[in-house]
Amino acid sequence: MFVAYWTDLLSQCNQETKMRIYMKIAHYLIALALVMPVAAGAQTIDNLSGEARGSVSDGAQSQQRIDKLDDETSQLVREYRAALSQLQSLREYNTQLEKLIVAQKEEMVSIRKQIEDVTNVDRTIVPLMFRMIDALEQFVKLDVPFMMDERNARVSNLRELMDRSDASPAEKYRKILEAYEIENEYGRTIEAYEGEMEVEGEMRTVAFLRIGRVSLIYQTLDGSNSGVWSQATRSFEDLDGDFDSEIRNALRVAKQQAAPDLLIVPVARTAE
Length: 272
What we know:
This protein is of the alpha+beta class.
């Protein structure tokens, strides 16, 4: 319809007018041809800019994901290395434990053998300890009769200790040896103490003087009677007033009331 309109219009014009119309149409077409690529190019540039901006945004997001993955990878690597180090430590620890277990097993075998040996020793030493106590009791009975209550009580305590289940054989044996040591010490010391004894048919308090096991002397507190123990007769022999001053001096030395000095004391006859 548009073409028919222009065709009809041109048929009514002369040749010169047609040429002017053709020239204007040509100018318009040239102008339109020049303008259209520019508009299309501008639109294309805008599209490309948008696409570029989108690519840049996508690239930034991708880089962020890459950085995150890199951090996670680094963390995993650190954890892996830590796990390897811990694994190595555990292996060394297990190796040490295996050595300890082997040593403990060997020690258990040794302890079992020691227990068996101790059981055998107990079977042997317990009768020996009873014989030692019997010998100690017999020795006290046959010895010079000083501090008899204390010495007999020590023997009785040893017999009670042997019947106690809470005392180990080692403790029992140690106590018996201590009793022997005490008895042995009596032979190297000097001692004064008081006690009761019968003098001329009357119980009196007297002072006893023990010089090792060599001499056991008594003297009444008023100094009127003195005597010395005789192992031969198993009794005290009256001194009849002899050595009274020497005995008093020796008693003071034994009680640490006088300086040590040469002691002159009676010694009874021994058994023949």
